[in-house]
Amino acid sequence: MSGTIINRDALYALRELPAESVHCCVTSPPYYALRDYGLDAQIGQEKTPEEYIRRLIDVFHEVKRVLRSDGTLWLNIADTYCGTGSKGGYTDPKNPKGRNGQAVSLAYRVEGCKQKDLIGIPWMLAFALRADGWYLRSDIIWQKNNPMPESCKDRPSRCYEHIFLLAKEKSYYYDGLAIAEPIAPTTAKRYKAGRGVGKYGKDIPGQTMQNINRPRAAGTFTDADISPFRNKRDVWQINTVPYKGGHFAAFPPKLAETCILAGCLEGGTVLDPFFGSGTTGLAAERLNRNYIGIELNTEYCALARARIGGETH
Predict the structure, then answer these.
(1) What is the distance between the alpha carbons of residues 210 and 254, in angstroms, rounded to a whole number?
(2) 99 Cβ contact partners less than 8 Å away, ≥ 6 residues apart
(3) What is the pLDDT of residues 24-48, one digit of tens each?
(4) Are residues 99 and 206 in the same domain?
(5) pLDDT recorded at residue 109
(6) Are residues 210 and 260 in the same domain?
(7) Domain extent at residue 205
């Protein structure tokens, strides 16, 4: 398999890629007002959430062009609070420069929001993408059992982020079996026990009852008749993992692997326009897929290359 790392602004790099040339996109753009990476063309330091959303829509509009007609976008995004105030004294345990120069967060004042309000960035982006022509298919909750600690005392601590599954067309490639979950032993036991013809044991007019739910005698279904798997649910429990490199916002490889297994056939090509330290590329390599990573930060391109290899342009 091959990999390409492009050291350039995502929008302009995408415009040079051929149409319908990649199978799926797995990415996590910089979150709004969270960190200043110190680059002129960076995304995430816009003056308003609306400007941030517009810039991302421009990027993902090009992603849609580059995707095959049956392609999907797996988009990891989290929210931001309004009125977070001074960050000058904050020490990020993964970043010796603290909050990267954000003496006062850009989200200190947001039009339409009160201090302490959630801005609603994930859904602002999801609805804007839908308006731009994407099919918004699923809101997957990435639950972390080891989230970063928070000092808040007037709300629950955050332990999840969103992963939106979006499709270019109404019909698209999705390998549900590749990410299927094992059924519980009690489920198989219940199926084999059978069920009688009670009040709700008949087909509903105009609807088709699944065969597994039809009335039947005990012993009708054996182990050979029952699939050991069920369709994957939309809450994924995946813990963060340590990364010793200089990138302090890397998501875990298992998260990228799950998206790639479902969204890209073996031998296909995975795109990440916000490549960072290269987690998507690493997952693609492990799963025998090609990858194209686009990253503005030269240092992160070097990290990714050292981590997974690939050609740098």
Answers:
(1) 32
(2) 35, 36, 87, 88, 90, 92
(3) 999 999 999 888 888 889 999 999 9
(4) no
(5) 80
(6) no
(7) 182-225
